[in-house]
Amino acid sequence: MRPMPDSASPPPNAAPPLRVTVDLNRCQAYAQCCYAAPEHFALHGREALFYHPAPSAASRLDIERARVSCPVQAIQVEAIQVEAIQVEAIETEEPARHGR
Ligand code: SF4
After folding, report:
1. Which residue, 14, 60, 61, 89, could crosslink 10 as a Cys pair with Cβ 3.0–4.6 Å?
2. Could you report the per-residue pLDDT of 62-71, keeping only the tens digit for each?
3. How is the chain split into domains, by residue range?
4. 73, exposed or middle or buried, with CB in 10 Å at 0-12, 13-18, 19+?
């Protein structure tokens, strides 16, 4: 089971995307999330669950519907803190070189 491939980046002023994680130790492939939000969750075969790990905030209703429909509460949803990601990215960049 693995996340679905990432789609296009959201526009700069869009609401922050959601972070979706599925506890694969809990997931029993009941597929209720796939019925509740088929654009974001899909089962391939009997055990391979694909899902979008960072859907747009506009998808929140569908994602929440999927979360509450899961009989084993395997789906976690949270809003991504964009500022925290940007600060982390800046801190991991190499310092600029001056001179030679
Ligand atoms: S509803 Fe829950 S248990 Fe069923 S496939 Fe989705 S995440 Fe897995």
Report:
1. 14
2. 999 999 999 9
3. 18-92
4. exposed
